[in-house]
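Quick one, T. Sequence first:
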Amino acid sequence: MDNLIIEGKLVEVLPVQEGVSTRGAWKKQDFVMETMDQYPKKICVSCWNEKADEIQKFQPNDMLKVSINIESREYNSRWYTDIKAWKIEGSSTNSGNATNPSEPAAGNDDITGISFSSDDEGDLPF
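Structure tokens:
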């Protein structure tokens, strides 16, 4: 998985979390997006440090295009998955798709709201 992108509507920006670790001060900002698929899904995405400030320039219902990394880690025999944004942009998706989400956008074969791109065209993302 070289590049993961989520496109959808900003639903909510959650409260900022801040703290200090052995590496210094940190800031985390979570936000919730909703995909514009036939069956929309809500996804909670995290921004860290300077990226946490970027999400503040967007308002609920703004359309976003977010480049993400997904990582899971184990702690005490339980697995936790983080979705971290590394690039946040306003989306150019036209509002017509929002009124009829069952109609796919031109050139968009993605039914989950997450698009995968790879240098190997024949590879499946799973």
